[in-house]
Amino acid sequence: MNYEKKIAIIGSGNIGTAIYRGLISKKLSPGQFFLTRRQSDLLAKYKAEGAQVGSDNNEAVQKSEIIILSVLPSQLKEILFEIKDSLDDSKILISIVTAYSISEIKTFTESKCPVVLAMPNTALSVGESMTCIAADKSDKAAIDITFDYFELVGKVLKIPENLIGGATILAACGVAFFMRYIRAASQGGIQVGFHAGDAQLIVAQTAKGASKLLLTTGNHPETEIDKVTTPMGCTIAGLNEMEHNGMSSALIKGIVASYNELSKLK
Ligand SMILES: NC(=O)c1ccc[n+]([C@@H]2O[C@H](COP(=O)([O-])OP(=O)(O)OC[C@H]3O[C@@H](n4cnc5c(N)ncnc54)[C@H](OP(=O)(O)O)[C@@H]3O)[C@@H](O)[C@H]2O)c1
Questions:
Q1: Which CATH number among 3.40.30.10, 1.10.287.3510, 3.40.50.2020, 3.40.50.720 corresponds to the domain 7-159?
Q2: DSSP β-bridge partners for residue 115
Q3: Cβ distance 35 to 61 under 8 Å?
Q4: For a pocket test of ligand 1, which of 12, 17, 36, 38 has the largest count of ligand atoms closer than 8 A to its C-beta?
Q5: What digits encode the pLDDT tens for the residues 186-214?
Q6: 168-264 and 7-159 share a CATH fold
Q7: Is the CB of 174 under 6 A from ligand 1?
Q8: Which of 9, 14, 36 to mutate to test ligand 1, by most ligand atoms within 8 A of the CB atom?
């Protein structure tokens, strides 16, 4: 696999620039990218690195083989209308925009090119994204290429399109959920004696280790919990107190509440 395709990122905000950062830290070079946003002066540092930047979405699409759409849902329809005449079937359109389906995007673009939905998270800037991707069966070549590029910056899972909404909550919003756990646990650590920086290091590394245990062994979380909970010990006392206060219930309810918001985003 060579990674030489030219890539346009239409809507180079938080996640768009994270994709750029992640990919250039692997096998791609800044010169392969054309980054756009309306306030293109805010992209000056990427230009200094060698990327092409600007606000002309059609120029970016015409000069690229992969087009990544990373604008807000409310901006998508207008952009697709703007760029549709620059699309053709040699290009791949990858949408990471929440709440728009493949068939809606193909309708707006008059099916001029294959469409892949991708749902990464901001950890792709450090090579640790969880990215879920979906495409029509007829667009197999496009989804395979998308897989290869996103695999450079983390784990990738092909899923049916109807699960993309769930992937948005678990993986993309999930970063914020884990950050809040890390922040809260750090505050607990400060109360029992640690300086803030040390507490955050201990909690973040412990979260990374816990994840790696599951990813490496494939064990169920309760198997790993059982190894830590000595009878009558402090771990089970803490865990039970958290559960009495609704920790698992709060997490499940939060995830479902997030999911229920998806349909209101367009
Ligand atoms: N953040 C995440 O973790 C994450 C993860 C997965 C998916 N997503 C999805 O990715 C999308 C972007 O999210 P974000 O957090 O990166 O939002 P964001 O920071 O607001 O980025 C959107 C970008 O689009 C640009 N834009 C708006 N209109 C444009 C136009 N006509 N032409 C070119 N660029 C335009 C905006 O810049 P200007 O105002 O300067 O044009 C802005 O930089 C959303 O649909 C979100 O649901 C986000």
A1: 3.40.50.720
A2: 93
A3: no
A4: 38
A5: 999 999 999 999 999 999 999 999 999 99
A6: no
A7: no
A8: 14
Mean pLDDT over 23-36 rounds to: 96
Any alpha helices (H) in 116-220, and if so which ranges?
140-151, 164-167, 174-191, 196-217
**pLDDT class of 264 with cuts at 50, 70, 90:** confident
Which residues partner with 135 through β-bridges?
Answer: 116
Q: What are phi and psi of 121, to 5 degrees?
A: -130, 175
DSSP letter (8 states) at residue 154: E
Q: Which atom of ligand 1 is nearest to the CA of 18?
A: 16
How far does residue 12's CA lie from ligand 1's centre (Å)?
Answer: 6
Does ligand 1 have an atom closer than 6 angstroms to the CB of 129? no
Residue identified by tokens 């029992």 is 192
The reply to whether the predicted model has a pTM over 0.90 is yes
pLDDT at 37: 98
Please tell me the total number of residues recorded for the chain in this structure. Answer: 266
Nearest to 178 by CA among 187, 188, 170, 167: 170
Host H or E run for residue 35: strand 33-36
